[in-house]
Amino acid sequence: KVAIKGIERELICPACKELFTHPLILPCQHNVCHKCVKEILFAFEDSFADAGSESSNQSSPRIKLSSPSTDRIDRISRSGTKRNSLTPRSSLFPCPGCQRDIDLGERGINGLFRNFTLETIVERYRQAARAAIAIMCNFCKPPPQESTKSCMDCSASYCNECFKIHHPWGTLKAQHEYVGPTTNFRPKILMCPEHEMERVNMYCEICRRPVCHLCKLGGCHANHRVTTMSTAYKTLKEKLSKDIDYLISKESQVKAHITQLDLLLKETECNSERAKEEASQSFEKLYHVLEERKSVALKAIEASKNLRLEKLQTQAEEYQGLLENNGLVGYAQEVLKETDPSCFVQTAKQLHVRIQKATESLKSFRPAAETTFEDFVVDIAKQEEILGDLSFHSSGLEIPEINEKQSKMYNKALISWECPGKTDSADIYVLEYHKLNREEETTTWQEIEVCSKSKIISDLDDDSSYAFRVRGYKGSICSPWSREVVLRTPPAPVFSFLFDDKCGYNSEHLLLNPGRTSVESRAGFPLLLGSDRMQVGCYTTLDYIIGDTGIAKGKHFWAFRVEAYSYLVKVGVVSSNKIQKLFHNTHDVSSPRYEQDSGHDSGSEDAFFDSSQPFTLVTLGMKKFFIPMTPAAPKDPASRILPLPSCLGICLDCDKGKLGFYDAGCMKCLYECNVDCSGVMYPAFALMGGAAVHLEEAVTVKYGEYHDDI
User: Fold this and answer.
1) Measuring CA to CA, which residue among 68, 95, 94, 90 is closest to residue 77?
2) Which domains, ranges and CATH numbers included, belong to the chain?
3) Are 690 and 567 in contact (CB under 8 A)?
4) How far is it, in rounded angstroms, from Cα 573 to Cα 576?
5) What's the CA gap between 649 and 557, in Å, rounded?
6) I need a surface site. Which of 489, 554, 598, 691 has the fewest CB within 10 A?
């Protein structure tokens, strides 16, 4: 048998660190006092109320905060719960035992079971701890006698005489259950918290908790596997007994592990002291370097000061001599008193030169030395940034790398990274970014703490380049920064639309997916039969489809992907007043030398790109991007053929009448032309043969979670 005092650790509440009082069993199987559960939930909801102010002052990941994390607070805010004066309403509970957010369900605290078994064990411990303190009878006349037993049905303690009086033989009270003196009274029957009038008589094997028959018939356990309470009691007791016997049989192994842990404790103490000493030495070296550089800087400033003071003092003395009866002027006045011409000329020649110099200096006064010390300002911006990032670097912590292929700049920025070694991953990552601006002299990085390996960033400026870098933290140890990656945002706000399945849509030749985000041309029998009837000429049918939303003004950008196997795809825009002409012009020329009006091969390669067509489209196909033939286009046909980007973007500026085609991966403009925006403009696509176009998916929180799972 295990001594009562040996299990004290199991009887301590993880929240208040005291013996359990009315413990509740959480869904994670940890126990917490009833009052502690309410206090934690109240504090949790209070922290949610202050989340706005706390989120603006997030600390470094090297500092662990005791307050609830912001992501937990966000989850509470999404549940729409509020606190009243009596009971916290939040369905999420931060378990102090496992440090996880536990969903308490709709009933919250009221849906938790009270752990009466644990209460009984705690009461035994209390009785053993205060064996000298007696429990007095509740019914004796003063002075009360020491109780000898307690009635569980009456929830009271009695001495022998009072028990006989209140539980006479031959009455129902004589059948009450009584135990030794105790202050812990629990109900004789465990009732269901969901159905308060029903006693629990079954055990749900899925949820691992007792339930009543109503829970099984129509409650939340209707489709769960349940067993009888007696079977669950027998099974769990056998398992617990076997596990206890196994642990007791491994007592020698446990003692060996305890001995090993004691050694590890001592080793940890020694290693921590050694690490402290090494860290102190490192900082002392920095202090020594700073003191040395400080001494050199102060000496240089002092030497410059003395030299300047000496020059200024000499200059002041010279000007002092220009005053009457002083210095040079006084000497000159005495020379003028000389009456001997030869002696006067001998002295006055050199004196006159000095007087002339003094006169010139009066005309253009200039101090002999500068009074400012701008050249002695110490620039510590870079050093301050480096010292701010000073931390413990570990060679075992992998340097994360930003994956440019998986990262995406669209309506929002999705930044993804990975660790090359896939081992010793960090607990948390810090992502930093800043806008590249040549006008700004200093760089200010914006910092975001991330628990996963991807992050979605909103509110970035359009048509701007941003630099990104990331580092990992594991406890107080951090990895070096990753290589900086520069990504560019779209040139305009992202325009969202779907393919229109009504206006001119040819369901025989084109196939839309249910979400209307992808279209595919089906080169089947209708195309072959149509070609079979053509004995002269070289033209086939293009199938057109437009977007379901138009643009009347402003600047907008959208992106899409063309399948690599696509033979011919045309993309661009069409005006609302030319849509009918678009769908009535069913025949298109597949040969660049064919002219529909003349009926013969003219040999002319004039495209009339902007004047002859009712819409503005460029041609894609066979993994190539074809720049249209215009006066400004290169004359060499080979220079007009570019590799087809994996993702193509279109930017329409209705105010300026400009249409640009971009490589959406790097946001580089491939071709730009003028377009008539007199009407409402719609995105337009044309497909022939085997081809497919997929609209680019917008970056959302759900997109980021899915992307991270992949």
Assistant:
1) 90
2) 1-46+89-131 (3.30.40.10), 231-362 (no CATH), 398-488 (2.60.40.10), 491-531+539-585+612-709 (2.60.120.920)
3) yes
4) 10
5) 7
6) 598
